[in-house]
Amino acid sequence: MKDFISIKTILVATDFSTRSDQAVKVAVHMARRHQARIILFYNFNSFFIIDRTGRQMVGKETISENFEQVENSLKLIKEYLYEQYDFTDCKTVTGNDTLISSLNKTIQEESVDLVITGASGKQGIKELILGSSSYQILTAANCSVLLVPEDSHQLNFKKILVPVRVLDKLHEKFDLSRLIAEKNKGTIRLLGISPQKQLADIRKAYIGLRKELRKSNIEHDASFIVTNDKAMEISRVSNDSEFDLIILNYQDEGNWKSFFSENFLKRIINRTSVPLLFFKDPNNTNPPTDPEEGMGYDITLPFPG
């Protein structure tokens, strides 16, 4: 169990796309600042059916044929990190289970502190219903997650926005924010943001953190907003002031009113092009459920309908 906040192992999920290339660049710059190691992670999308003999892989031969190609591609990324950044503390991991099962297995075995993944920042109707890979990682990874937008070119976090919107694990998130600010020699903008009905509690917490910042050597400023639409206001502030990073506590707000509604997490992702770091408690003993677990088709039974 960790009793302090640190970033010593960074896992970066790659699919060899442009957006994951940017995530790799962010990862190596963070790793150098935090003296951390990097795990380059790739997972095969394995499809399966279920028959009387148990789970059967579909396309197993194809996966075997592609494995060598994937390993070579990961090796090329390692070589790039060495040649471009003289960075050698890097390991590659290839999973072949469901994305989340493979990811969380690696997080546990390698004591990963942070997962970095690229995100398109565009949620079409398909992603809204099924969930993109980056959104799956965000919601189900058993550690903090940094989403790097595809069009972001930010490698250093000089201007950091830290909203105070929920009280759960607020001080742990604040410790992470100070750590990142110190490593980047950056500034923190503390943003208290609350609806009227939670105003007293949120304001009290906001004032407490502002006092802590005044005792530190971190350059900072602070402001407070009363609103019922936190996602919209956080996005507006971040876009107006051109922040390099937003650090949020991973806690959703508001149930979906309909099948097509957006929760807080999707609203904030869709409305900003700034990298988003979602803090998750490393001591959480109730890991999220794998959204892919149990998926498949039972060919021994008629299709329900």
UniProtKB/TrEMBL annotation:
CDD domains: USP-like (cd00293). Pfam families: Usp. Residues 7-149 form the UspA domain. InterPro entries: Rossmann-like_a/b/a_fold, Universal_stress_UspA, UspA. It comes from the Bacteria. SUPFAM superfamilies: Adenine nucleotide alpha hydrolases-like. Belongs to the universal stress protein A family. This is UspA domain-containing protein. It comes from Chryseobacterium hagamense. The lineage of its organism: Bacteria, Pseudomonadati, Bacteroidota, Flavobacteriia, Flavobacteriales.
